[in-house]
Amino acid sequence: MTKLPYHRENLAAAIQQQARQQLETAGAEQLSLRQIARFLAVTPAAVYRHFPDKASLLAALRTEITAELTATLRENVLDSADATTMLQHMVSNLLTYADQHPQAVAFVLTAPLPAPVSLTTVLTLYATQQGQTTVTPQTGRTVWTFLVGVLVQYPQDQVIVNWVVTAITHLL
């Protein structure tokens, strides 16, 4: 085993990466800054210099996962000009992400999660294409709450994208 230098560049990133791995395998409750220090072969004080406590590390992870979830939601959405197809892509992306990262999704859902702007944009486009009035911020939050509920309540292998999209269109 090669000995790692005491002062390492990007230690904060390495800590966050290891914390994310712990979160993905065991959940946020099992996350341990001391275990991270042992795994990275640094002193606990080195970890605490970057993240003074578990809460600050969890806050950084929440920010990272929320950004990742938001980016995933937007993937391939603009491949079509049809809002229904866009909505199907968003729902499919969200369900795939939840299937691949169940612990991350469970962790992120422990705090309020604002409706992504991209979802509200696609909902507004859908309403316009259907000749409906514009989508209010409350409607965007309602649809987001429904999607979050789907993630929490249904096993991923039982959720059908078209069913979710149909339910969303009824909410509009």
TrEMBL record:
Q: Which residues bind DNA?
A: 32-51
Pinpoint the HTH tetR-type domain residues: 9-69
Query: What name has this protein been given in UniProt?
Result: TetR/AcrR family transcriptional regulator
Indicate whether DNA-binding appears among the record's keywords.
Answer: yes
Q: Which Gene3D superfamilies match?
A: Tetracycline Repressor, domain 2
The source organism is: Levilactobacillus lanxiensis
Q: Which UniProt keywords apply?
A: DNA-binding, Transcription, Transcription regulation
Asked whether the keyword Translocase is assigned, the reply is no
Could you name the domain of life of the organism this protein comes from?
Answer: Bacteria
